[in-house]
């Protein structure tokens, strides 16, 4: 540890520059990859992701070592005149997870989207690598941004990079699915911008810290929130829910997955829908005073429970493996919204120390789901490529033909169901403990019901995969070993999260100066 101390001191001293580098690196890679063309775009993307992972590790180390968030004002101008970047524990965690998953996706997609030396460049590989870098650039801006309008711009970059990924094949059904996705995303964007404009008109700033301070000051002086604020928050929240695909605004998500390349589905499910959820967290926990959101928080959680039940029931009805995984995403997103009532509490029972556990549990669920679902979508791609289909009833004997892929599916399933010792288990344990401690036991029932549904539809897949082992299917082509190992590696990532010492997850509480602390004095560092 003593050997690392000088490096940690350097990382802490360069914290602000690291934030700028994390923001600029994907953009530079994109600008470099595009003119170099398809043969080099993939190499540039993978090399920059490796470098970005190193930067993210340095940011996490600096946040952990310093025990405080990293901040940087671009150009030396403080808000509201300038633009601020900030990496608290939540941001640092997501900055670290993003290049890991995108890097795995890139390596998995390399055979499909590379241009062999000496062959003519085609449109699809250049588009894929450029869009992958576009998603990464947008995500980093979402995690570091501190201004609601800049966050809107960053989210649009994520959206307009993700939509073309869905229809890279150019087939009519994928174009229709991408168009539906685009319409929902644009609806969400319009609502978010309208809400932001209302807040700016009322308070003259969209900087998160300044806006939170002014809203809190109004509340402390006895002035209730006016209808403008309530309408603005409602518009922004609904817009972000549409982008997150929370029930009943989920209709674009399953069709988008149906014809998308496995690598695109992995990015969409693991990271893209999480970007808008991250903004909802910022809006509800960092901008708005708790008394404004406590009454509405159960409504968000109720939608989450509806998503868990509806998505789980729909997953049971699916004939295709990829569609089952897509509806599983609809269900798993629902768990994330249980965070709000458990973190904010209620007027009658204000949030206590368990609020920190609920937030950590929600973030663990987000990360564990990202690893597990990326693994499952990529595994479904391996199976479809080997068999020429992904019909669940016709998977008999596949466990013998593709043992590594099915093992990865089993490991990822442990996390999705919430079984020990996976990351999903740790997440659901923290959420259940927060529900019990705060007296909101009904949310724990929803967690258990969701776990049973998840176990049922995943066991259905495994039952078919493990049947007929004496007659393994004839493969159209053998699986690529490196793809199977990547699928297994991501699944193990979801599992290992549950084995990480709990003290490490204190990272997620560093730099949290949200309304919970301001209003109640709860010890969120």
Protein described:
The chain has 525 residues and is mainly alpha-helical. Helices cover 73% and strands 2% of the residues. It has 22 helices and two strands. The chain has helices spanning 5-13, 15-36, 38-66, 89-113, 123-144, 148-166, 172-203, 208-220, 227-244, 253-258, 262-287, 290-293, 297-317, 321-336, 339-344, 354-387, 398-401, 403-417, 423-437, 441-466, 481-496, 515-520; strands spanning 70-73, 84-87. The protein has a two-stranded antiparallel ribbon. The longest helix has 34 residues, at 354-387. It is globular, with a radius of gyration of 22 Å. The model is unreliable at 514-525 (pLDDT under 50).
Brief overview:
With 525 residues, the protein is mostly helical. The chain is built from 22 helices and two strands. The protein is 73% helix and 2% strand.
In N-to-C order, the SSE pattern is HHHEEHHHHHHHHHHHHHHHHHHH
Label the structural class.
mainly alpha
Number of helical segments with 4 or more residues: 22
Alpha-carbon Rg, integer? 22 Å
**Largest sheet report:** 2 strands, antiparallel
pLDDT under 50 segments (min length 5)? Answer: 514-525
| Helical proportion, percent range | over 70%
Give the overall shape: globular
